[in-house]
Amino acid sequence: MKIRAIATLLFILFSISAFGQGRAKISGYIRDADGNPLDLVNIRVKNTLNGTMSNEKGHYSLSVATGDSVTLIYSCLGYNKAERILPLVTKDMRLNVQMNYTSLELGEVVATAIRKQTTTLETLNADRVKLLPDPAGGSIESLVVTFAGVTSNNELSSQYSVRGGSYDENIVYVNGLEVFRPLLIRSGQQEGLSFINPDMTEAVNFSAGGFEARYGDKMSSVLDITYKKPKGFEGSASASLLGANAYVGSSSGKFTQVTGFRYKTGRSLLKTTDTDAEYDPNFIDLQTYMTYQFAPKWEINFLGNLAINNYKFIPHTRETSFGTATNAKKFKVFMSGQERDKFETLFGALTLKHNLNENTELGLQASAFTSKEEEGYDIAGDYWLGDAAEEGGGEIENLSIARYNEHARNRLHSNIMNVGHYGIARMKNNTLKWGATVQLEKINDKISEWEKRDSAGYSLPQGGGNVNVIANLFSDNELESTRISGYLQDVFKFRTKQGLFTLVGGVRGSYWSYNKEFIFSPRASIGFIPNFDQNLTFRLASGLYYQSPFYKELRTTVQDEHGNSIIQLNKNLKSQRSIHVIAGGDYTFRASGRNFKVSADMYYKKLDNLNPYTVDNVKIRYYGENCAEGHAMGLDVKFFGEFVPGTDSWISFSLMKAEQSIRGSEYVPMPNSQGYNVSLFFQDYFPGYKRVKLNLKGVLSGGLPVTAPRTGYEDGYFRTPTYKRVDLGFSYQLVGGTDAIMDRGFFRNLKNIWLGLDIFNLFDIKNTSSYYWITNIDNHQYAIPNYLTGRQLNVRLIVDF
Fold first, then answer.
1. Would you call 729 helix, strand, or coil by DSSP?
2. Is 741 helix (H, G, I), strand (E, B) or coil?
3. Longest dimension (CA), the chain
4. Given phi > 0 = left and psi -120 to 50 = alpha, else beta, which region is 562?
């Protein structure tokens, strides 16, 4: 009785104390429409300054006064605002909230992740990339190249440079698995389709530097793609002058699948170049992503891809005018022969996922990639280079007359297999991620190419002389190796009186059996959202990043006793290294009732152990040795928002300087150091009539440094002209939405029908992709620009169901 009396007295005293304080705690979890926890959600009591933010597990806790009605407002950029009214608060309460996505259309790109960015990863959801005017046939990369710090000077290619780095310094993941590209492709018109199928894509994460330890050993950027898991039946089909796409997705509870087919032909687009030829490019891609939940906590996923790229080219004539008004020149070629290229790739991956509990996920992954690349051409030509008169276009002087013959029989087969484990564990304020992978690589490379040219008076030597080749290249190499890598990282979030901090720290290690090298890469970043203004976000990231060599980087060219250029593999080549330091932030605000966001990043990269390279179109040739050091620095700014109500657009601006010293030479520009870049994506619609939409994409970037063949930038260089291009797309929604016809007959199964008209290269600007070099009898070299595509119309029909 005495113990019970004491317990009762303590309860009464505690109750009186609590009543005297007049406070109650409201807590709960916030999740999105898919049941995933939402962090950084702002929760506040309406008409007060009392508020808090949710943590990484979506949990929040807020103290409020008792006795009165309380209205809580839940807000997060990218999600519809939620409001909950509690008529009477007398005690602690649990209140869970679900927030739905806000669909902000980016010309059929639905961006749902304009959220607080506390790391270097930019996030957006891309359900469809269909209304964008894209000469490459529609790709995720067509959006990525409009981001700050990203540049591309070739509309036929899906490759891009980030902050002065090479195309090979960008790593691409699809569903947590690294994807690979063919190695022999030398021009954008051979490239075909990107691996990423935009119809199947749900989310895009991109970092231009300072990325986390869970991402692989590359020096510039990471593009992380997540494919969708449909919740029901869905699909789309489209056709245009550039090809056709189709995909179908479905769900039956435990089983989901999304399968896409793409066909691309750039025949009509390539006919706008200076070369009159029979173009027959045909690129086919088939992908599927399947998931099956065979037990409550077990799921198995399969990702498969088959790509067949065929490129046939039969040239006839070429006529190129270049130079200035006072020094105009004309280049004419009459050609015979043909080029046939074939690139076949096959990729398959299995993932076994186990949810140990609601906070722990474990997985096993296995994948295999095989590529068969064949490049062959025999092209002969008679060319003439002369001055063009200022008036009438007549020729004044012949500068060079010659005949050439180009030959190649190149074969490269690669097989890459890997198996790995990953894990995720969420705790109160921490999220641990770890993983380990073993990768086997086998590559067989056979190259035989040469070029003959007779420029000595346009006649063969007399007396049994020979016309020597001006260039040749031979290779017969095999590579078998094993690569082991692993990582461990932690995401730690904590709150102080000053605001919310997000700390990401991790380490990554890798060993390659071929060069016996072990690399260790620590990386860290911190994000801060101040309490005094939650529209501000600050970021700071740094780390040690390596560019682990792949087969292409190992190749170095030596001369044999007969003067032939032979490719050998440099077993002593080590990883290139870069130290990243990045400081930046965002400011979100509303103007005229619309959302806007300004992002800015300053960066510095110290580069050493560099393996220099030269670029010709998209073909990269490495020196094959660690003989350079350098640095890159710059400023990236992006202004994003609703410039037109109900739409999203952005403009990006970058200033940069990337230099290297090769074998102790003076500093010269890196091959992708453009100096500046301005890119624009803009969407509009007719006022009061949203069926008609306009999508505009523009790029203005500085010229790239160019050097003569078989020389390096340390031997001298010049720059290409400024790259300028504007692509414009108009789209008209024939039927869709609330149209009455959508409830009738055949149209019941459809969501939308769009008719589109694109104008590629609106101002018909001649951009230079590379140069064709010729030498006259006096051994004087001339660089003939190879121009990219001109103005071209494209018509599209899109059906969503």
1. strand
2. helix
3. 128
4. alpha
Q: Which two tokens stand for residue 554?
A: 């190992």
Which of 375, 617, 543 minimizes the C-alpha distance to 473?
A: 375
Q: How far apart are the first and last CA of the chain?
A: 73
Nearest to 88 by CA among 183, 24, 1: 24
Per-block average pLDDT, block size 10, for the chain (801 residues)? 45 41 81 76 82 80 82 78 82 84 44 63 71 84 90 91 93 93 86 90 91 94 93 91 93 93 91 90 95 94 96 92 82 93 95 91 96 94 79 57 89 96 90 96 94 60 52 92 97 88 95 96 95 90 95 90 87 96 93 87 96 91 94 95 82 95 94 94 82 91 91 90 94 77 67 91 93 78 90 92 86
CB 705 within 8 A of CB 717: yes
Minimal CA–CA distance to 546: which of 224, 179, 220, 162?
A: 220
Whether the CA torsion 189, 191, 197, 198 is positive or negative: it is: negative
Spatial distance between the Cα atoms of 175 and 63, rounded to a whole number of angstroms: 40
Q: Model's pTM, two decimal places? A: 0.84
Pick from 345, 339, 334, 193: which is nearest to 280 by CA? 339
**Apex CA 57: angle with CA 51 and CA 59, to 5°?**
35
Residue 97: count of CB within 10 angstroms of its CB: 19
Which helix (H) or strand (E) is 17 found in, with range? Answer: helix 2-21
Which helix (H) or strand (E) segment is 269 a member of? helix 267-270
Are 416 and 441 in contact by the 8 Å Cβ rule? The answer is yes
In the three-class reduction of DSSP (H, G, I as helix; E, B as strand; rest coil), residue 296 is classed as: coil
| Residue 42, H or E segment | strand 42-45
Indicate the SS3 state at residue 540: strand
Query: Tokens in use for 779?
Result: 């051994």
- Residue 350 and residue 300: Cα distance in Å, rounded? 7
- 519 close to 510: Cβ distance less than 8 angstroms: yes
Residues of 8-42 as b/e, b for ≥16 C-beta within 10 angstroms? Answer: eeeeeeeeeeeeeeeebebebbbbbeeeebbbbbb
